[in-house]
Amino acid sequence: MRRQVAFVTGASRGIGRAAAWALAERGFDVVVTARTMVEGESADGRPLPGSTEATAAGVRERGRDALALRLDLLEPASIERAVAQTLDAWGSVDVLLNNGIYTGPGSMHRFEEITPQTLATMFQANLFAQVQLTQALLPAMLERGSGVVINMVSGAGMQDPPAPADRGGWGFAYAATKAAFHRMVGVLRVEHPDAGVRFHNVEPGFVMTEAMKLNDPDGEIAARFKPAPPEVPAAVIAWLASDPEAARWNGETVFAQKLCLDLGLRPDWR
Questions:
Q1: Which CATH number does the domain housing residue 123 bear?
Q2: Measured between alpha carbons, how far is 128 from 110 in angstroms, rounded to an integer?
Q3: What pLDDT digit, counting tens, does each position of 202-217 carry?
Q4: 85 lies in which domain range?
Q5: How far is CA 213 from CA 49, 99, 103, 206, in A?
Q6: What span, in angstroms and rounded, lies between the C-alpha atoms of 149 and 86?
Q7: How far apart are the first and last CA of the chain?
Q8: How far apart are alpha carbons 138 and 269 in whole angstroms?
Q9: What's the pTM value of the predicted model, to 2 decimals?
Q10: Phi, psi angle pair for 220, to nearest 5°
Q11: Beta strand extents in the chain (DSSP E only)
Q12: Per-residue pLDDT tens for 131-146?
């Protein structure tokens, strides 16, 4: 039997790492991609734990194969290289999880503080990179007549912030990139309605990841929203990737925390 392969971006920590492990538990071999390859490195100069090597080790502990590759959303050549290395090693990809996002400065800036360069950088990392990766892997899924594309979206792209960026809300630049990214799944479903490939948005709700802790050092955002652990959206991602019942959500936005509770995928964390 052909191996089932999941390709995960932003997999060195947070939701991406938890999703890679949950996918492994569902029987997928996992391509683990991120900028941080070795524990102790820092992708953006901040002290963030996690690495592709550590995530890959966790996949192997769950009995599946792992391929740890460097992928920088700001470097189109690294995206092209990671795809080529994956296809050369394993031949195909069954599930694409577009999880990685830009974690550098700008996400929490007020509107007046945003520079054209910051905006361009964030659109490259939060939209253009995902378009490039999806365009690279989708044609083979369509030709094969099977596959799943899962995009990690954000409530910031669907609603106004509860407060300014420096007082418990989020910035315009981040919201704008996620709003644009949000539209991909619905368009793909309309363009490929009977192709056998499914497309899902996953809105994780507020999840306390390592990067979020750095973006919310005073706990103002956490005080407004009750955070869930990364394992909650990860469980939903793995279910969408593997369960035929998920077809009913093709082209839709799934709110991970509610669906996780409705399906009983994880114990109630609230």
A1: 3.40.50.720
A2: 23
A3: 999 988 776 666 666 6
A4: 5-10+79-263
A5: 12, 18, 12, 12
A6: 16
A7: 41
A8: 35
A9: 0.92
A10: -70, -40
A11: 5-8, 29-34, 66-70, 95-98, 147-152, 197-203, 253-255
A12: 999 999 999 999 999 9
